[in-house]
Amino acid sequence: MKRILITGGAGFIGSHLCERLLNDGHDVMCLDNFFTGSKDNIRHLIAHDHFELVRHDITKEYFAEVDQIYNLACPASPPHYQYNPIKTIKTSVIGMINMLGLAKRCKATILQASTSEVYGDPQVHPQIESYWGNVNPIGIRSCYDEGKRCAETLVMDYHRQNNVDTRIVRIFNTYGPNMDLYDGRVVSNCIVQALKGENITVYGDGLQTRSFCYVDDLVDGLVKMMENKQGFIGPVNLGNPSERTILNLAELIIKLTNSKSKISFLPLPQDDPTQRKPNIELAKKELDWTPKIEIEDGLMKTIEYFDKKLRGLI
Q: So which residues are the catalytic ones?
């Protein structure tokens, strides 16, 4: 049994990770300031003997005795991280410094949940870990993109200078139950609009591509990276390399929901990437990890969750 701290543990991915680690027999401390996280995501875990919930903002120092830290704290959808861009970059940078300081003091292993957004609007496709990216440092997305890039720098410098045991994963588009219905991400937008029979919003011509990974697959990759004992610290891409257009995704969701929704086109937001697809050869080699859940199966589980949520059943 390990004592494990998960920042952002009441968020979409964090809540699934909390449940997975509890099922694996660990003590789990969930740290969240509930800016985008929700108690509903972890309410069923609160009575568990080995679960602890703490309201805290990682831009402030936090002290505990832990063996592992998963740092997932940061708004991840554009409407959320652009709502308070200064707070977003402070979470990525100051929060990262605080968590690395805690890992240094405890001699804990720390995993940073970075993002495919460090690649920006990529000029290399699919994206490999050695690609340095094409990021606008002064755009409306830069509070998130550059914040995560700086966080990776801090992780590597603490590793090199202070011998902190670190891990970096770059998470590509992930979906599944516990997503915020109104977080502005493409999967949640399309499903909610389809279930309500509203026009489905597609930005630009809809031909921009994304790769969608179901949350259970992603969590499995996070745990494998944390438990990796071969000296591999990353960064490593975690995502599903099956690429599709946004238009194709919207049409698939209409089909799976039996919706009468039509597709409505709006202008493409500033700096929105035109292509996003992970090269996961490194994850296959170092972690023996590949996603297993097909998008139709994952979307049906997500649609069922959203339908119950919209009807007030959960």
A: 144
